Amino acid sequence: MILSCVGKYKKYALLTPLAIMLEVLMEISIPYVMSKIIDVGINNGDMAYVVKMGVLMILMAIFSLTMAITAGRFAAVAAMGFSSNLRKKLFYKLSDFSFHNIDKYSTASLSTRMTTDITNAQQAFMMLIRSAVRSPMMLVSATLMATNINSELAVTFFVAIPILAVILGAIIRIVHPRFRIMLERYDKMNSIVQETLIAIRAVKAFVRGDHETEKFEEAANSVRKAQLAAEKIVILNMPAMQFIAYSCMISVLWFGGNKIIAGTMLTGELISFLTYIMQILMSLMMLSMIFITFVFARASISRINEIFNEVPDINNDDADKNLKVKDGSIKFKNVSFSYSKNKNNITLSDVSFEIGSGETVGILGGTGSSKTTLVQLIPRLYDVLEGEVEVGGNNVKKYTLDHLRDEVAMVLQKNVLFSGSIIDNLRWGDKNASDEEIIKACKAAQAHEFIEKFPDGYNTILGQGGVNLSGGQKQRLCIARALLKKPKIIILDDSTSAVDTATDKKIRDALRTNLAHTTSITIAQRVTSVMEADKIIILDDGKINAVGTHADLLENNEIYRELYTSQQKGVQE
Ligand SMILES: Nc1ncnc2c1ncn2[C@@H]1O[C@H](COP(=O)(O)OP(=O)(O)OP(=O)(O)O)[C@@H](O)[C@H]1O
Ligand SMILES: [Mg+2]
Hints:
This protein is an alpha/beta fold. It has helices at about 10-45, 45-95, 100-105, 105-130, 130-150, 150-200, 200-205, 210-235, 235-260, 265-310, 370-375, 400-405, 420-425, 435-445, 450-455, 470-485, 500-515, 525-530, 550-555, 560-570, and strands at about 330-335, 350-355, 360-365, 385-390, 395, 410, 420, 460, 490-495, 520-525, 535-540, 545-550. The chain has 20 helices and twelve strands.
């Protein structure tokens, strides 16, 4: 339950309604005192009574004001604390998400949920502990007081309130789905902004600026339309309220005036009755605003709850906490995989192979042949649909994710660096790495040389995503970072595609000497990058086409031979 996020701010959340209760008590008593001043003091010309009651009224007003300020402060503290806790909890939850969970929501939608939706929930919470206590209390007690003064006149608002309730109910019913649509369009707009900003270089290079602007304008317009559709119903709230308020006042003045003339009511009574009516109508107005805020927040809260209810599908449920990966052997047994977890939409089918600990393995295959998909199953970035993946002789599900991923380092095809210094990025691999270890890893990844050339060397600050590095430099930093983990298995997914062939060879040679006991899997486009491997796996359309050494495959495998000869030709020409 979202409300549990109040946590240590509960005290403030409970004190707020208390302060408000006292405030309401005062506000309700003031008109009563006033009617006494008029009907008893002034009518009898008793000045001492007027002064006594007048002073009492001032004291009550001061007390009521103090309580209102206190309640406001407490409510603010509780609401900010609530939203900050909620945001933290949501963030922790997101960090447990698997790739599959993340694929389901767009990152833009996740960030709207973290920001706009939480702000909406925060406002609703503030309303809940403040106005949602004040208005009904005010409504009930003012109604009681007014009925007490004159029950016949009170009939007016017993007629008015149900009418108002029906109108409000209708507004809320219409508006709720419109708010939901509005938030979805916000997601879409945010995703366009995010995408354009991330890919701003590509946008400029392809002179697609106008196109992106158009796309954004379209999205912004659709947000505007959705907002308009919701708000034009919401604003009906005001005129409906006012119409009913003034109708009440007029009828009370009419009937009350007649009663005074007939001598069945006192002037002071009518004046305080009118004040109560104002209080009743004000609290009804507040109530309607509270409802609208809640309806709006309900759309947001259900979006937040969607995240809380999302079950991270990759977890440690089947893991043995003490089991460590003992070596770098890998075994795939009849593995099938689908991104949509659907047997009719298979990306990998019936893949079986074995890799011994310390072997070097190459994976080749055309683009889209599921190479990346295959290796992602080893550190359990996704779970298999059928079959088993074993690492170090045990099913990957038997290890905790921490233990497994500590031993399986994967350099992703889309490499990611964070803003911060080069050394900070490298320490991601091992936060306790010594300078010597870092330099050694960078030398192996052929990164040391270019890092040294930067004026600030290892302390060079990288922009977001490493924008101030070349593609090949980024790749080499990512390899160095993976090496620092000293894993039992290292997976390089097309990690040297942006590096020239000579450097590529140097990296391979260095890896072979540095990682003699580490299983290494290299996905490559170039045959030369993998031809010295102990084993080469050829993937074709999600299936294993062949497994063998360079010599085997050259002799027996059509795909490999073609790839090899075509690439050799390229070199010789
Ligand atoms: N996150 C994802 N959700 C759904 N489908 C995906 C996802 N990632 C990849 N695919 C699909 O899975 C198939 C295999 O993709 P994969 O990335 O494994 O290919 P690849 O062999 O690594 O290609 P490349 O050489 O271009 O990197 C493709 O058809 C792709 O459209
Ligand atoms: Mg790939």
